[in-house]
Amino acid sequence: MTALLYKKTEYPLKKLLLDIQSGHLALPDLQRPFVWPDTRARDLLDSMYRGFPIGTLLFWEFGQQDRIHVRQIGANGQCTPHLLVIDGQQRLTGLYAVYFGVPVRDKSFVHRRIKIAFDPLEERFEVSNAFLAKDPRWIADISVLWRPETSLYALIGSYLTRHRQLGGLSLSQERQIENAFQQLHALENYPFTVLEVSHDVDEERVAEIFVRVNSQGKSLKQSDFVLTLMSVYWDSGRAQLERFCEQAKQLP
């Protein structure tokens, strides 16, 4: 039997996001444009909330630390990344932005937040807007659930108090709301299946793996991979290419 070039493992969402924040997991797309529409991030969270599978992630181990030239996302560059995200960058970028409430650059090179709203009674997600922010049924920005200073118990109590003042809820509805809050908060434990390609595999073979995993939309996917490799091996060149694209977007 041919030796496998990868190992299969599993990480909870919170572990992945904290590794991105610390710099142990390199995610170049946090510095490059986020091309997903916000509705894709909304739908991803909805699938996770309902327990649906959302596909595997593909990482690449680094065995030679002197090869690494990726930008550090967190920790002011104090941590050396040992894994690079090869496939799954848009998913992780969106989840990172929503979870921590941090801005990302969109396809127009504008820094902005991705705000997702949640109705715990209807168990429904929407892209947040001014109307939903004023509606007491909605949590206008779900990142509040995972802030270190947030008490989930207090947040649920505040939400129920608002509804009682508006006319009240039945006991079964209150229990449903409590369960929805807890289920949403528990998304940080959602398990991600990760294929980790060995550090013994060179970049040409990793490129081949990437293309075969992504058999649809090859031209776009391969360009994404090229930009990822540029982040590793020629970061200055990638930065120049990004500046050119950004300036081209601004032309009348």
Tell me what the structure shows:
By secondary structure, the chain is of the alpha/beta class. It folds into two domains: 6-114 and 190-250, no CATH class; 118-187, no CATH class. The chain has helices at 13-22, 38-49, 89-100, 130-134, 152-166, 171-185, 203-213, 218-233, 235-250; strands at 6-12, 25-26, 57-61, 83-87, 104-105, 111-112, 116-119, 124-127, 191-197. The strands form three sheets. Strands 1-9-3-4-2 form a five-stranded mixed β-sheet, with helices on one face. It has a two-stranded antiparallel ribbon with strand order 5-6. Strands 7-8 form a two-stranded antiparallel ribbon. A hairpin with a 5-residue loop joins strand 5 (104-105) and strand 6 (111-112). Helix 7 (203-213) packs antiparallel against helix 8 (218-233) and helix 8 (218-233) crosses helix 9. The longest helix is centred in the C-terminal third of the chain and has 16 residues, at 218-233. It is elongated, with a radius of gyration of 20 Å. The N and C termini lie far apart (58 Å).
Main sheet characteristics: 5 strands, mixed
Query: What is the mean pLDDT?
Result: 81
The helical percent reads: 40-55%
**Gap from first CA to last CA:** 58 Å
Annotation, overall tally of beta strands = 9
Radius of gyration: 20 Å
Q: Shape from CA axes?
A: elongated
Low-confidence stretches: none
Order of helices and strands: EHEHEEHEEEEHHHEHHH
With helices defined by DSSP (H or I, 4 residues minimum), what is the helix count?
9
Strand residue percentage:
15-25%
Name the structural class. Answer: alpha/beta
Biggest sheet strand order reads: 1-9-3-4-2
Domain module tally: 2
